[in-house]
Amino acid sequence: MKSFIDVAPDSHFPIQNLPFGVFKPRDIVSRAPRVGVAIGDYVVDLSVLEEKGHFRLPEFKDRQVFSEDSLNAFLALGRPAWRKTREVLQNLLAADTPALRDDSALRSRVFHAQKDVAMQLPARIGDYTDFYSSYHHAHNVGTMLRGPENALMPNWKWLPVAYHGRASSIVVSGADVRRPQGQTKPPDAVEPVFGPSKSFDYELEMAFLIGPGNALGQPVPIGRAVDHIFGMVLMNDWSARDIQAWEYQPLGPFLAKNFCTSISPWVVTLDALEPFRKTLPPQDPEPLPYLRMANDFTIDIHLEAQLQTEKLSEPHVITRTNFQNLYWSISQQLAHHTVNGCNLQPGDLLASGTISGPTEDSRGCMLELTWRGANPLKLPNGEMRKWLEDGDALAITGWCEGEGYRVGFGEVSGRIVPA
Length: 419
Ligand code: CA
Fold this sequence. Notes:
Blueprint: E1 20-25, E2 34-39, E3 42-45, H1 46-51, H2 72-77, H3 79-92, H4 98-101, H5 104-110, E4 111-113, E5 117-119, E6 128-131, H6 135-146, E7 162-164, E8 170-172, E9 177-178, E10 181-184, E11 193-196, E12 200-201, E13 204-210, E14 229-236, E15 239-240, H7 241-247, E16 261-263, E17 268-269, H8 270-273, E18 277-279, E19 297-299, E20 302-308, E21 316-322, H9 330-338, E22 349-351, H10 366-369, E23 377-378, E24 384-385, E25 393-401, E26 406-417
Parallel strand pairs: 6-22, 8-16, 9-26
Antiparallel strand pairs: 1-2, 1-5, 2-3, 3-4, 6-7, 10-11, 12-15, 13-14, 13-22, 14-16, 14-17, 18-19, 20-21, 20-25, 23-24, 25-26
The structure holds calcium ion.
């Protein structure tokens, strides 16, 4: 499969990918946000193709969905419409299809250089849940808090542990992240103190976006879970460890997490990720029946976090991990989330939790990399880091490696500004 648009071999956005996002052309102020897909260095404006009638298809139920400022209406249509859109686009963008290739007037309206657009949040996110599904992350953090014998709570291998996060503070990649202030209690202090967090951290995560929801009281059986999953993004769950340590018991994370969560703008569809599926490894103990399914899968996605300080000459990779390091699958997460009748809605975001692997360089946050500050990171220019500092920028990137092409996620980045 090849497009008439030139795509570099290491580009994240070949014709095999076609991730969806919401963008605003920068040049003309009055232009409203609309839906696009990325190919190479370009964005394809789907609202123009929709206006031209390319999506007047039964799967769209007479809905116009691409001139909206979010993907929500498209998400609600479900996989038949998603697949049809992908098919229409792969055909229109193919090297040997003249319809768009040879129509220069239409081309000038449809294609925008990515550098000339401002990416928006892809969806109106109604609800956001953060799981805790990496065994190595849970084990490392548990070891720090309770020692290696009691590292995992007794429930951890029986159900995908999660907490409800805050959707209002989810921002798109590129937005600055303000260091939060709050209460902390130094170990030797009698009373808590108030001030800027002193242990600011990132968490390398991925998240999936819900398509059609389920009715309240109607659980989604695990075998149907993927029908409700549109696609995936990269996520950074910024965390203030000192605020977290003082506030989290007994109800879990609150102000340590909800000040900002960053996601990447391009949503890579499950259809584009299909060639990179891997069988989910056997789980021990075997989960309860509602969490079991034949051919459950994980996905081979290489993931990296890069730190750029104000003094480093180039970004330095501090985490190298893989989506396959998650113990629980996305189908299990979704089935568990709805098993009590909880309803999911189009645009809801369900995140993986920090994706740490078994090796030291695969740890997905500073808490683990520096073992709570005990072993500071030494950067190539001699700078040391226990935690992230003001002016540091953290970027997470990820891709699947195909034969001669990559299906990638672009990046999610943010720079820390003082409290
Ligand atoms: Ca998290």
